[in-house]
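The instructor's notes for this session suggest beginning with a concrete chain rather than abstract definitions. Hand out the sequence below and ask the class to guess, before any prediction is shown, which regions might be ordered.
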Amino acid sequence: MGTDDRRRFKRQRKQSIVHFQVVESKGEPGPDQEGEMLDYSLGGMRFSAKEPIKKNAKIYIKLDSEEWGKELTVVWRNPNRSLLEVIGSVMWCLESPEAPGEFEVGARFVEDIEQ
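After discussion, reveal the predicted structure:
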């Protein structure tokens, strides 16, 4: 059984800037970081990061709906939001095969942060 066979939601390719913060041990968000989204689904996303992130780490993810347009509202079904904020859980983090010194991170969406 391949990896794609286990997925609940189909992955969509998307290149977009993603802003995120790793939640630190005291529950406070760490410094703002920026990466590139590589793909997403209703259940999570894969993005690049400059530093490795530990498995099961919580992250705050911010996506700008102006860059996404209608595509974002289809995924999260709220056309009135200009910024989508979600909490994610890191499922895996591996060195990028295409960008030495960078990492690819797979995160599962855990909770939507209402604004």
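Then share the key points. Confidence is low (pLDDT under 50) at residues 1-5, 72-77. The radius of gyration is 14 Å.
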